[in-house]
């Protein structure tokens, strides 16, 4: 039976072997390119809030910390930075592989595209069935680059869904080669534009009655990420809570979010459309795995959380899921979207940087896109960070565009109008009578490789929600294993009922709903659940005033009027604002003061 983890002989060491790092390490190189395998209702929201501790930081030299969900290429994405809280909003909308023969009916599934063969994986407390690398779209290569995804055509015979497939082409963080804190977020499979695959974990044997489904969307600033990362291993949560778990790849960077608004050749937001197509696939096929298509909970972190929020805001996505979890991100972040003018400026500048003719009023979009499609994928990756109007700690190059289609208006305007699946953010939700739950995540893992002074990093609640501490060889403490079980139960309870509290344990400390008056939230750490009030009200008031000024000083929202360099020329350097090192030093100092 193929090993789903080809970079190591077995997913976990056997008795007597040295315990590995909790995540894989990869060499200082971009992964090779692969051409991909051959086929063989009523809505109620919930809010949860993790930590305000340091988040992803660069950890050294002149690389000063920045808000991790909003950082330039020289600041590693999932490394801790000093000030931003892990914000999580939950909204309720109305071991090794064991060899199994194909005769095992639990590992053979019929979906609309054809037959699938999965494999049985061992979790510490028993087996799960895994179906890895299931194609849900035609490969978006060649003339399909920049276009919306097309559903996968049926395949003959039985397709082996026994190993993760390629990672979508993306920027690879090489700032600290070999350092676990950055490498754990880098691609662990080959890079390819043929990357639209999803994965399904389901209890073994298959549930006899429909089971709630959790669908994961990874973060990565809309320019990186992969569903195959070890930290997203779905076996532990599936085995512990008996849920079905699905994760998908989606296009990132220019491949997923380059936009020439008004053009059919590059309409933009195709990465979000990849996600939507995966959700449609879940609705059509998850019942074959024992999942309940009428009980689907969408959850994501950072840019994945922003993506979840955008599906809440986009009418065509409604009905594809029923509850949602936003971890450490929101659709109305200033880094999460751009307008049509700025989107076109960035696309045109990227074309110039790689030697393509201009488009738009002075050119031809069709010729421009044809030229971009002919360029090697790595050329686009190498130049995409040079399209930003100014080097900034709060901007990414290619992100969702407010196009009047997927997003009819800016997320902020839609939220203020209450136009997203009956939901609004925390305070508005509570004021309108919706159930809202809030938390702050405060536990720093004992295995964390980042320095102690960085506190609880952005993104490091994920390993507990996915249950990695249950694997003994990863060397978490017994208390952390218990903590992970508690978090998995909260998330699974929410997926089942829309309430994180466990109805089977009424004597356990209760997580109270958040209201605009009481503003109650809980702290999630190794100690018993503690209820608090007024989550950093002073700090929030300060940042509501200070952050816009910082954004204004470090990046300009005004479209650039320059035409960009000719092929072979250096990218123009925008007018500097305040010195960036000084701004970041001030940012760091004020962040630390606010945490006292």
State the main characteristics.
single chain, 596 residues, Rossmann fold, 2 domains, three-stranded mixed beta sheet, 14 helices, 24% helix, disordered N terminus
Provide an overview of this structure.
It comes from Capra hircus (Goat). Belongs to the type-B carboxylesterase/lipase family. Residues 1-37 are annotated as: Disordered. This is Carboxylic ester hydrolase. Its EC number is 3.1.1.-. Helix 13 packs antiparallel against helix 14. The protein is of the alpha/beta class and 596 residues long. The chain has helices at 180-183, 235-241, 253-257, 270-285, 303-313, 340-353, 365-374, 377-383, 411-416, 426-431, 462-465, 478-497, 537-554, 580-595, and strands at 44-48, 88-92, 97-98, 108-111, 114-117, 119-123, 126-135, 158-160, 167-168, 191-192, 197-203, 211-217, 244-248, 291-301, 323-327, 439-441, 520-524, 530-533. Helices cover 24% and strands 15% of the residues. It has a ten-stranded mixed sheet with strand order 1-2-15-14-12-13-11-7-6-3, sandwiched between helices. The chain has a three-stranded mixed sheet with strand order 4-5-8, with no helix packed on it. It is globular and about 70 Å long. The chain folds into two domains: 1-61 and 79-156 and 164-499, Alpha/Beta hydrolase fold, catalytic domain (Rossmann fold), CATH 3.40.50; 538-595, no CATH class. The chain is built from 14 helices and 18 strands.
């Amino acid at each position: 039976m193929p090993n789903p983890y080809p970079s190591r002989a077995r997913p976990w060491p056997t008795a007597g072997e040295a315990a590995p790092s909790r995540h894989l390490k990869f060499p200082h190189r971009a992964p090779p390119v692969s051409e991909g395998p051959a086929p063989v209702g009523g809505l109620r929201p919930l809010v949860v809030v993790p930590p305000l501790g340091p988040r992803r930081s660069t950890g050294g030299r002149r690389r000063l910390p920045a808000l991790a969900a909003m950082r330039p290429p020289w600041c590693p994405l999932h490394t801790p930075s000093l000030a931003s809280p892990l914000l999580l909003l939950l909204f309720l909308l109305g071991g090794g592989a064991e060899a199994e023969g194909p005769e095992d009916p639990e590992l053979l599934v019929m979906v609309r595209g054809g037959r699938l063969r999965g494999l049985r994986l061992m979790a510490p407390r028993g087996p799960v069935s895994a179906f890895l690398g299931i194609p849900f779209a035609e490969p978006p290569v060649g003339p399909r680059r920049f276009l919306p995804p097309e559903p996968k055509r049926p395949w003959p015979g039985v397709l082996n869904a026994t190993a993760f497939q390629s990672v979508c082409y993306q920027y690879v963080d090489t700032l600290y080669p070999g350092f676990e804190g950055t490498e754990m977020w880098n691609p662990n499979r080959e890079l390819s534009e043929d990357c639209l695959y999803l994965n399904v974990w389901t209890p073994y044997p298959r549930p006899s009655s429909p089971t709630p489904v959790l669908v994961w969307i990874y973060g990565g600033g809309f320019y990186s990420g992969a569903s195959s990362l070890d930290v997203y291993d779905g076996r532990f949560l599936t085995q512990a809570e008996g849920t079905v778990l699905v994760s998908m790849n989606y296009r990132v960077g220019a491949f997923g979010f380059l936009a020439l608004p008004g053009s059919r050749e590059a309409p933009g937001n195709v990465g979000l459309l990849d996600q939507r197509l995966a959700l449609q696939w879940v609705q059509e096929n998850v019942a074959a795995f024992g999942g309940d298509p009428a009980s689907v909970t969408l959850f994501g972190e950072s840019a994945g959380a922003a993506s979840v929020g955008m599906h809440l805001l986009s009418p065509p996505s409604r009905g594809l899921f029923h509850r949602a979890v936003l971890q450490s991100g929101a659709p109305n972040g200033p880094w999460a979207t751009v307008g049509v003018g700025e989107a076109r400026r960035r696309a045109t500048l990227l074309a110039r940087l790689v030697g393509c003719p201009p488009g738009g009023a002075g050119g031809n979009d069709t010729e421009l896109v044809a030229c971009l499609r002919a360029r090697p994928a790595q050329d686009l990756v190498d130049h995409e960070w040079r399209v930003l109007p100014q080097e900034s700690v709060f901007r990414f190059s290619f992100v969702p565009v407010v196009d009047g289609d997927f997003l009819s208006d800016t997320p902020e305007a839609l939220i203020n109008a209450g136009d997203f699946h009956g939901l609004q953010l925390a305070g508005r939700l509570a004021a309108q009578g919706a159930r809202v739950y809030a938390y702050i995540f405060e536990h720093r893992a004992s295995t964390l490789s980042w320095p102690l002074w960085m506190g609880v990093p952005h993104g490091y609640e994920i390993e507990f929600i996915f249950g990695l501490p249950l694997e003994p060889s990863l060397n978490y403490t017994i208390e952390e294993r218990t903590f992970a079980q508690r978090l998995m139960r909260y998330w699974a309870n929410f997926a089942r009922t829309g309430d994180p509290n466990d109805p089977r344990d009424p004597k356990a400390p209760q997580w109270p709903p958040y209201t605009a008056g009481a503003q109650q939230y809980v702290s999630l750490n190794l100690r018993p659940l503690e209820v608090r009030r007024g989550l950093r009200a002073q700090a929030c008031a300060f940042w509501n005033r200070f952050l816009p000024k910082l954004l204004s000083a470090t990046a300009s929202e005004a479209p650039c009027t320059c035409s960009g360099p000719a092929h072979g020329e250096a990218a123009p350097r925008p007018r500097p604002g305040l010195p960036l090192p000084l701004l970041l030093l001030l940012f760091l100092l004020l962040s630390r003061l606010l945490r006292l």
